[in-house]
Amino acid sequence: MIALLNGNIASVTLNGDVTIDVNGVGYKVSMPERETINLRAGNAITVFVHTQVREDSIVLFGFIESSSKELFEKLISVSGIGGKLALVMLSVLSAQGIVDALSTSDVDMLCSVPGIGKKTAQRMVVELSSVQSIFDIFVPNIQSTTQNEVREALEELGYRRDEITSIITNVDPTLSIDVMIKECLRLMAKV
């Protein structure tokens, strides 16, 4: 099984597929889109890999952080969540966002991911909220608490949860709550 790749980026596609050249061999790796935004051909890269072997294919899922790979593996253990859907979750919510949603049983947050319905979100909460290793890696911190407060304030202003989720991840979580709200509003005005 391939667990780690270290090489140079040969290409990056819009859907999150990255081809990594390792000593002349190109490996196609599917990654969360939020991790591929800043990747450029020619740059060196190291990715942690989950190898999925099926009867008709071998698929490599790659992650910049080993903790994201571990969370991915927990997500795909839930019935109804495959590798592609788990990547979408990591792209939309981020690893910390998923853990925050699980730790607070926030089914609505999980449902903001395209392809996740209420039953699947509830199943995730039931099956994964008891998996302590997830929370040990992604301990909710002051930044996520601040983001939750900003999210609530924007919801009170009438913004949809999916709009907020896509914007809030682009704002520096170390800013004060009022500055974060202003920055989110500024970014939303551009959309």
Characteristic key phrases:
191 residues, 3 domains, single chain, 5 strands, 49% helix, 5-stranded mixed barrel, OB fold (Dihydrolipoamide Acetyltransferase, E2P), alpha+beta
Per DSSP E runs of 2 or more residues, the count of β-strands stands at 5
Please state the CA-atom Rg, rounded to the nearest Å: 17 Å
Number of domains in the coordinates? Answer: 3
CATH superfamily of the largest domain: 5' to 3' exonuclease, C-terminal subdomain
Helices and strands, in N-to-C order?
EEEHEEHHHHHHHHH
**Proportion of beta-strand residues:** 15-25%
In what order do the strands lie side by side in the largest sheet?
A: 1-2-3-5-4
Number of helices: 10
CATH fold category name of the largest domain: DNA polymerase, domain 1
In short:
With 191 residues, the protein is of the alpha+beta class. The protein is built from ten helices and five strands, in the order E-E-E-H-E-E-H-H-H-H-H-H-H-H-H.
